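Here is one chain, start to finish.
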Amino acid sequence: MSEPSGYLLVGATAAIVTFLLTPLVGWVATRVGWVAEPDERHVHATPTPNVGGVAMFVGFLIAMLLASSLNRFDPLFVDNSEPLGVLLGCGLVFVIGFLDDILDLSPPAKVTGIVVAGVVLVFKGVTMFNFRVPFLGFFQLDDWSPLVTVLWLLGMTQAVNLIDGLDGLAAGIVAIAAGSFFLYGTHVSDLNLLVEPNIGPLIAVIAAGVCVGFLPHNFNPARIFMGDGGALFLGALMATSTSVVGGRANPGAAANPANAQGLAGQTYFFLAPLFIPLFILGVPILDMFFAILRQATRR
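Its structure:
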């Protein structure tokens, strides 16, 4: 599954569709009034469309449709409920964000909706199986898996949403993070260190693709914003990708020095599934932490 040409074709499709569709979404949004008005909390000086997440979501759908039609991805789509789970769960997160962009939902309503999306992911099997703690071994999540999945989804969606405050920032960071995680996911798959089939690398390359396609329209001065629909959706894609890669390490492979490529491979395997998601998403995660800290200290 890690041969790159199919992945790159799907990622490029996501980028091209998003790039071409974003101006149309902006044109429609301007005419129906789905715009962010200038005020003291924003730096833009003119009304700007704020529903660019629509183009991202359509790019994701087209890329997933293409992947499902390619024979090389049959192990992911045949007799596997996870692709539908990603579509439904991440789609629900997008709808929640989009409704917030045009109707201004209350925070409890948004959190409730994201929790429901997490439950959908759990129901369709898009969850972590285990967690590797360096030098302490594997911890099977079992009954804890639904809670961890929902909390991980909540954390990632809010982390990306909180950094979406400057032109190109959220899309740029997620593009780098998703691209890095795609490379990491395919590498550990090559080492036979993942429970297969694993949808994580596919979701990561699509996330990178929609960001690359959106960025030309979002660079300063931005002609369109992704809005909460786009930011929460990107967070959901990163949450699902990192959870099914970092949370599905193969314990049997780690115990086999041949599969883990000796001591160095085992050390890499022990450490990476725990820390790679935190490293590549370190900026939004730390930003979320400090934002909460600032809010709490100011009551």
